[in-house]
Amino acid sequence: MNGRKCAALVSGISERGKKLKIKFRKSITFRITGWLFLVMTVLMIMTFAVFRLVSVSVLQKTIRGYLLSSVNENTNRIAFYQDKARMDDNDLNDVYIRYKDGWLEIDDDFLDEINDVQSALYTSDGTMLYGKNPIARVMEKESFTASRVYRYETSDGNRYFVYDRKLNGAAMQGLWIRGVVPLRAEERQIGDIFRTSMIFVPVLLLAGIAVTYVTVRQSLMPVRRIEQTASEISRGTDLARRIEIGEVDAELSDLAEAFNGMLDRLERSFEAEQRFTSDASHELRTPMAVILNQTELALEKDRQPEEYRRALSVILRQGRRMQALIASMLDYTRMEMRPENYPLTDLDLSELADSTVRDMALIPTPSMTLTAEIQPGVRTCGNRLLLERALQNLIDNACKYGKEEGNILVRLETRDKKVILSVSDDGIGICAEDQPRIFERFYRADSSRSSRNVFGAGLGLSMVRKIMEIHGGTVSVESLPGEGSTFYLNFPDNNR
Ligand code: ADP
Asked: Do 217 and 30 form a contact (C-beta atoms < 8 A)?
């Protein structure tokens, strides 16, 4: 491998690494886990700080409690006897100290040292008679302070709680018990708690992060599936694929359902487009074939002018057919793709129907009678251009498929407060099987194909249906073969 190739490979790998890094940073799982880690750490630090504060005060309270109870109990364990004979000398463990003109008896239950509290007996001048005191020497000069616990700090920085209590009884006047407890005990206990936390907190934190990561990943699984399905669909052409909606969280199953709904619509419109394209090309193929055929025939050899004229008139007819077909297709597509180009406004439907009938009556239709029964003052919310187009299509069909010397009736009425615009003829009619299909694009009933030479692309009624859809209404038909048909434009209630 030469140097340039190697450099390209290395830069390719580092580029991919960068992309992965960015993708990872942008991943929801990473972000949620990261934020949770941050929040948990802050929370733990705060909890620990609060805990430390509370525990210090609780510990101090406990230590003070120990100190008070040790000293108070010890005051009851000292007695004074003038007469040695009256002393309780049954207990050989008791301690006897000569004091003034008698004896001090220190019970063997005297708590010299318990829970780190060390107690000692003093005379008021500071001489220690009995007991233990870790800082007796430094406190030698400290006078006694009655009835409160106080702090004492030695020059080397050690801190203590101290409690002095005067003994009761006339004979023991001037005697004190001093209890001393080092604050080291409190610090040691907090230190213990801190050390234990230092082991448990990171373990808990890590466990929390791991659980969050797995849960978030698991919860986002459907999103991944949606993404995979979307990529598969965009890579291939299988629009029929759907996301399986299992037992996922409500929000995500809603998302999956919405996505599937969108795919349904996409698939339907894609199929419709495909059908439209294939139908359109099928419809164009026939006139095109006729044109080519006539042209080839005309050019094959020298022909009579009459033959050329016949060929050209066939070509012209087929050309017009194609022109009409293309115009209808363009109109239809424009309307379907951009319904917003046809805004709906309040309009006088009676006037619209009347003027359309008048215009249509001007088109010479041999031996057909076009009459109108129009209820005046009927208004609706609609698009003038589209509604005119719909009515024209229906009248046009009535002319195409009506019988010679037949009658066409356009009627506008309100029935049960519903606006209905209808076009009736007494023509060839439509058989029951064809009736549901005539509104499909490019569909033409066989009877009309075989009937007199009527040109039609099969788009007129589908356009009428689309127009009524845009208006929130419907189109329907009643027909009997051989007797005639009536097409109804039914407007929605809110258009009254
Ligand atoms: P086109 O008229 O161009 O063929 P349309 O979509 O307007 O297309 O109509 C579809 C089919 O419905 C027609 O081919 C015809 O078979 C039938 N049709 C429509 N209107 C009438 C009618 N008034 N009487 C009988 N058949 C009709």
From this structure: no
